[in-house]
């Protein structure tokens, strides 16, 4: 007899699903679940009545223009630290760009946040935070250098869960503070408490399409924003401020990949209406590399954003983890060493081993370049990263993986090593935020569009190009039809929202920008955890373990280590 509510463990999932299924996906349709899969691959082609891209907002646009003077704070942003702590970041002073720039002195402006539980009543004041400036310098004649305003980071601690706090940030010594803002803390880690809505988007940029995406995200009222790399696209510009959708096409004579750093300041102002109220967690993409003199890279990214790298035991802002209610998020770096012998892999193994799935049942991973992508753009570009890390993530039963990089949408069936697998993650690509490089429309399985040997070379890491050795595409580099693991794909700008209902069900919804004012969704599915059928295991005993038998789609499937042939999982029906 069923009891215990929808948070109960299987076999009550079906009772829970009947309740959850009362929601509608379109007129008269039940929202599907991953238990209904694997799904027949489906493609929605690009709507030719829409534009594939748009230009960036001008610096004079009210959404990006600077409106404060002196040392008044701007570009105010929040980020999660630990479950009872929050980062508050902002910028003061004027940035400089030119052949000769003189950095501001960070010690001249204080870093304080005063906050409380009621509007205008600031019972608490933070200890002094940290402040810094960064520079983007070039050794090439004619290129303009940049030095930032003063960037402030303050960590608020001892916060209560599910509580609204009102705050101002600024300099206590001169009583120069921002206008009042507020945020609501997330629930503590628990299998029965989750953020209401988590907005997820990649490759946002600062175009008119980006503005539509941001408006749509705000309309969906998220409690957390996850930004999967390629944020401002400042490196789509020359240092003179001239930009183009294709940098290498427009600027073939550029001596290096230039950037226009004031674009970062515009982006910070553009995002402030949302991220001064809702914490934003970022991970780097290739557009954040931004090489400069002295062999430095990622300087703007690491200077501007607070992330819980130290709190999660990472020595790098390029990979870290955090909890949000009953979800453990792992943010991985595709543009830093990901090999099994490297620091990131060692950290990841420790982090995954430390996760208590009785407290945070959901395990979600994010990184910028997708592993499972059937578009021609970036097709199998990060195969080396997949070969190094996929087995580790699979062994700990990561439930969902989100990536960007490809400027389109795609959701997979549950998959492991290119094989349909009921214990594998669902991979979702949401690199469709609206950036200047335009939406991707070509598929690697389209006739004549399979990338060649010189295509899709990653900015970091090696090239692991090989033909498939099993399955319908055996002997080929590309499939000649939409791959079986690709459940749904569509070329359109948009964003997604993850709503974790309980410890077994999470609703994923993808919103297309063109549906902003309609009661419609582009894609929607309940992702269902099956911890009894898909137990996780530490890597130290992974190679010798056997997964117990599990029931799915009226078949008994045995998954054993002995059945792994050349990295392929075989499913028996007996």
UniProtKB/TrEMBL annotation:
Signal sequence span is 1-28
Q: Which domain of life is it from?
A: Eukaryota
Q: Which UniProt keywords apply?
A: Glycoprotein, Hydrolase, Signal
Q: Where is the Calcineurin-like phosphoesterase domain positioned along the sequence? A: 197-409
Q: Which residues form the Purple acid phosphatase C-terminal domain?
A: 476-515
Question: Which reactions are catalysed by this chain?
Answer: a phosphate monoester + H2O = an alcohol + phosphate
Record-annotated Purple acid phosphatase N-terminal domain positions: 73-185
SUPFAM superfamilies given in the database record: Metallo-dependent phosphatases, Purple acid phosphatase, N-terminal domain
**Molecular function via GO:** acid phosphatase activity; metal ion binding
Q: Which residues cross the membrane?
A: none
The Enzyme Commission number assigned here is: 3.1.3.2
Its family? Belongs to the metallophosphoesterase superfamily. Purple acid phosphatase family.
State the PANTHER family in the record: ACID PHOSPHATASE RELATED, PURPLE ACID PHOSPHATASE
Please state what the protein is called: Purple acid phosphatase
Q: Where does this protein come from, organism-wise?
A: Physcomitrium patens
Q: Which gene encodes it?
A: LOC112276630
